[in-house]
Design goal:
heterodimer, A: 523 residues, alpha+beta, 14 strands, B: 198 residues, mainly beta, Porin
C-alpha cells in the first residue's frame, strides 16, 4: 500500500500542477448566459440548450441540481443523466475490479470470498482491524471516493452520493474480502470517501472545459480523468468527453468566483523532543493548497461549494504523502454582514491524514464553525475561524496500541488507537491587499480510545494539540517565500500503564507560487 | 402471473448497451471432486455488452462447497468446513427472443478457476510476516448456462437459469486426513437473480 499511496500522492500533485495553468480561472467570464444558449458546433447531447432551443425541449443544463426533462430523465449541470442503476452498477463494478486486482495481481490472502464468507461477515458483525495507518486512513477513503464519484458522475448530489459511498463500503466489508467488517473501514471509506470524492469531483470540474477543442480538450479530459477516474470513465463512455457543449452555468459547478491554488516547495526540519536539535531530520517538501469558493463571497452554499484541499509530500520521509487535509461546507448561513465585519456560521465536514516519521494522526470530523472577517484598514484585513470539532472516528499513534482487543485475523501489531472525540480550534489570518502575510492556529483534540490501548476495556484517552505559525512575504503578484513553525503535542493517559507524552517540533521554509487565482483568492 | 403482467407491459427491446446480472443459487458436484465436495451455494455477477441478440462480457462466480467429512474424526471436521471455488469467466451468449414476457437464452463460458480451503479453516499461521498462506489450486472451467429472463420493469428483469460446468485443476490435497485429493469434477445447479440494463 505504501507504493500505492506514494504513486497516488505524486499523481495528484502532478495533475494539480499540470491542469491548473496560470490564468485558467480567468476563463470564467468567457461566456455570458445569453452566449451559453447559442448553438455550439456539432452538439447532439440531450439536455444541451443549443439543441433544445431549436427543438423547443426543456433545458436543465444550467441548473445546479439535476432537473427533470420532458421525457422524465434527470440531467445534471454537466449534462450527465441521473441513473440509479448505472450508479449502483458502477459501485458493484468498482468492488469487483478492486477484488480482482487483489486476487489475481496481488495474490492477497483476504480475497477468497464465497457465500460462506459473506454469511460469516454478515452474521459476525463489526469489529476493528490492524491495517497500516496509510491503508486505513488514506487508501480506504480514496477507495470510498470512487463510490461517491459513481453517484456524482451519474447525476446525484453530495448527500445522495454519500449514500453510495456508505453502501459501497458496506458491500465491500460484507462481500469483497474475507476479513470481518470493521467499523474503522466503514467510517473511513464511507464518510472519508465522501470528503475525498466530493473534493476530487470539484477539482476535476475546474480542469474540464466543455467548450475546448483539439489537444487542449484532450489534456483537460486526461487531467480530469486522473483526478476522478469514475467521472472520466462516464464522460468517455457517454461521449461527453469529446462533445463540444456549454459549461455549467453556475460558477460553483465548475470554477467558482473565488478560487486559489498555491504550490510550495522547500525544506522541512522535524525533530522529536524539547527542541528541533533533538533527533532532527531534514526533508524536501512539496505542498498544494487549493481553496475553492469563499465563506463570505460565494453566493451558492451547497455542500462543498466552499472547500479547502491541502496535500503535502514529504520527500525522504517514511511516506511520501505526509498530509492530506480536506474541509468542505455542508451548511452555511450569514450571521452578520456589514461594511467592515462579516460573521458566517457553517457546519463542515473535515478529513485529516497526517503521517510522518514522528507521528500518525487523522480522522473523519464534523465541525461547527464561526468564520469572521474584519476590515482593519483599506489594505489590511483579518479573518478568524473558531471551530467546535466532533471527531466521528480518529486515529493517533500510541505506545500500547499493539495490545488492541477485538481484532480477528490479526496480521500485524497496530501502532495507533481508534476512537471518537471532541475538540476545538482557533485560527487567525492577517492579509495585506488580499495576500496572506501571517497566520496562526491552535487545535486541541481529545480522543477517547475505543480500540487499541484500552486493554480489556480499561480507560485510555489522548489529548492532541497542534500549534502553528506562518509568515509570508509576497514577491510580485504570484510568488512569495514563507516560513512555518509547527508543534505537535500528544499526552496519552492509560488506566493500566504509565502515561506518555510526545513533542514534535517542525520548521518549514519554502517558496510559493500562486498558480491560479480568481476573485482575489481566499487567504 | 405477476411476472407475466409486468413483463407484458414493459418488454425489453433488442438493443446495444451494457447489462449486469447478479444471481444466487445451489449446485451439486459429480466426478472426482465429489469424493470430497458435497453441494455448494453459488453466487454470480456478470457484466456484459449487448449486440442485439448476442452478448459478451465477464462474469465472476463464487461457490462455497461443503466437505464430505464422513469418516473424518470430529475434531478434524472443525478444520474441514468447506472449500471455495472462484471462477473468472469470459462469456458469450445468445438471447433467442428479446421482447416479451419470457426471453430464453443460452450462454457458453470459459474461465480461470481457483479452488482453495475456506477462509479461517485450513489456513496455517504465516511463518514470516506478510507470507500468503492461502493456497490456491488453479485450472480451467467450461460452462454452459441456459435460462429465462422475465422483464418486470423498464430496465430490470428476473433471471432463472440452469448451469452445468466441468473443471480441471492442479491437484487439491486436503490438509485433513481421511479426505482424498482431487483434480477434476463437474457441477450442475440452478441460479435465480436479476438483470439490469442501464
Amino acid at each position: 500500500m505504501a507504493g500505492t499511496a506514494r504513486r497516488t500522492g505524486w499523481a495528484l500533485a502532478a495533475f494539480l500542477v499540470l491542469v491548473t495553468p496560470d490564468g485558467f480561472a480567468q476563463q470564467v467570464p468567457e461566456q455570458t448566459n445569453a452566449e451559453r444558449l447559442q448553438p455550439a458546433a456539432a452538439v447532439t447531447i440531450y439536455g444541451n440548450p443549443a439543441v433544445e432551443a431549436e427543438t423547443g425541449a426543456t433545458t436543465a443544463v444550467s441548473e445546479s441540481e439535476p432537473a427533470m426533462q420532458d421525457d422524465g430523465e434527470w440531467i445534471g449541470p454537466w449534462g450527465e443523466r441521473r441513473s440509479l442503476g448505472a450508479a449502483v452498477g458502477e459501485v458493484v463494478a468498482i468492488n469487483i475490479l478492486v477484488w480482482s486486482f487483489n486476487e489475481y495481481i496481488r495474490g492477497a490472502d483476504f480475497t477468497q470470498v464465497s457465500p460462506r464468507s459473506w454469511w460469516e461477515n454478515i452474521s459476525g458483525g463489526f469489529t476493528y482491524d490492524d491495517n497500516h495507518f496509510t491503508t486505513n486512513m488514506f487508501a480506504h477513503p480514496y477507495h470510498g471516493s470512487l463510490y461517491h464519484s459513481a453517484g456524482r458522475a451519474n447525476g446525484f448530489n453530495y448527500w445522495e452520493s454519500l449514500g453510495f459511498s456508505l453502501f459501497g463500503s458496506a458491500m465491500w466489508e460484507c462481500c469483497g474480502e474475507t476479513h470481518p467488517p470493521a467499523w474503522n473501514d466503514w467510517i473511513a471509506t464511507g464518510v472519508g470517501g465522501a470528503a475525498v470524492g466530493e473534493s476530487l469531483y470539484r477539482l476535476s470540474g475546474t480542469v474540464l472545459d466543455n467548450t475546448a477543442t483539439g489537444s487542449e480538450r484532450t489534456w483537460r479530459e486526461i487531467g480530469a480523468f486522473a483526478l476522478n477516474p469514475v467521472r472520466g470513465f462516464n464522460r468517455l463512455v457517454s461521449g461527453r468527453s469529446g462533445r463540444v457543449m456549454p459549461n455549467p452555468e453556475e460558477p460553483e459547478d465548475r470554477i467558482p468566483n473565488v478560487l486559489s491554488n498555491r504550490l510550495s516547495a522547500g525544506v522541512r526540519v522535524i525533530g522529536e523532543g524539547e527542541s528541533l536539535s533533538d533527533s532532527s531530520e531534514a526533508h524536501g517538501l512539496f505542498q498544494v493548497e487549493f481553496k475553492f469558493g469563499d465563506e463570505f463571497a460565494s453566493q451558492r452554499r451547497k455542500p462543498f461549494d466552499i472547500f479547502d484541499f491541502g496535500l503535502q509530500l514529504n520527500l525522504g520521509d517514511k511516506k511520501t504523502l505526509g498530509r492530506l487535509s480536506i474541509r468542505g461546507n455542508l451548511f452555511t448561513t450569514d450571521l452578520k454582514k456589514s461594511e467592515n465585519t462579516q460573521h458566517v456560521f457553517a457546519v463542515e465536514q473535515e478529513f485529516q491524514y497526517m503521517n510522518n516519521n514522528a507521528f500518525e494522526f487523522g480522522g473523519q470530523m464534523l465541525d461547527a464553525s464561526l468564520h469572521s472577517r474584519f476590515g482593519l484598514s483599506k489594505d489590511w484585513s483579518i479573518r478568524t475561524q473558531l471551530d467546535a470539532i466532533f471527531m466521528i472516528l480518529g486515529a493517533v499513534n500510541s505506545e500500547w496500541a499493539f495490545l488492541a482487543n477485538d481484532i480477528p485475523n490479526r496480521e500485524r501489531f497496530r501502532e495507533y488507537d481508534f476512537g471518537p472525540g471532541v475538540g476545538g480550534r482557533i485560527q487567525a489570518n492577517l492579509a495585506h491587499k488580499g495576500r496572506q502575510v501571517f497566520s496562526a492556529f491552535y487545535w486541541y483534540q481529545w480522543l477517547d480510545t475505543q480500540n487499541g490501548s484500552n486493554l480489556n476495556g480499561s480507560d485510555a484517552y489522548h489529548i492532541v494539540q497542534l500549534i502553528g505559525l506562518r509568515g509570508m512575504v509576497p514577491i510580485g503578484s504570484k510568488f512569495g517565500v514563507g516560513a512555518d513553525a509547527y508543534l505537535f503535542l500528544r499526552d496519552s493517559h492509560f488506566e493500566l500503564f504509565d502515561n506518555t507524552s510526545q513533542r514534535v517540533p517542525q520548521v518549514r521554509l519554502y517558496g510559493t507560487w500562486d498558480v491560479a487565482m480568481s476573485g482575489g483568492g481566499r487567504q | 402471473m405477476l411476472a407475466i403482467s409486468l413483463g407484458a407491459s414493459t418488454p425489453l427491446a433488442a438493443q446495444s448497451g451494457f447489462g449486469f446480472t447478479g444471481a444466487l443459487g445451489w449446485e451439486s458436484v459429480s466426478g472426482g471432486a465429489s469424493q470430497v465436495l458435497e453441494s455448494g451455494i453459488t453466487g454470480e455477477f456478470d457484466m456484459y455488452y449487448l449486440f442485439g441478440h448476442l452478448r459478451t462480457g465477464l462474469g465472476v462466480n463464487v461457490v462455497s462447497y461443503d466437505v464430505d467429512a464422513e469418516g473424518v474424526p470430529p475434531v478434524v471436521q472443525e478444520l474441514t468446513k468447506g472449500v471455495s471455488r472462484v471462477t473468472l469467466n469470459l462469456l458469450i451468449g445468445y438471447k433467442f427472443i428479446t421482447t416479451g414476457t419470457f426471453q430464453p437464452y443460452l450462454e457458453g463460458r470459459i474461465g480461470f478457476v481457483r479452488f482453495r480451503p475456506e477462509w479461517n479453516y485450513w489456513l496455517s499461521p504465516p511463518e514470516e510476516p506478510g507470507e500468503n498462506t492461502s493456497d490456491r489450486e488453479k485450472g480451467i472451467q467450461y460452462t454452459l448456462r441456459g435460462g429465462l429472463e422475465i422483464p418486470f420493469a423498464k430496465k430490470w428483469s428476473a433471471d432463472v437459469s440452469a448451469v452445468w460446468s466441468k473443471f480441471n485443476i492442479t491437484e487439491v490435497t486436503p490438509a485433513a486426513e481421511g479426505l482424498e485429493p482431487f483434480d477434476s469434477g463437474s457441477t450442475f445447479g440452478f441460479l435465480v437473480g436479476t438483470s439490469f440494463y442501464p
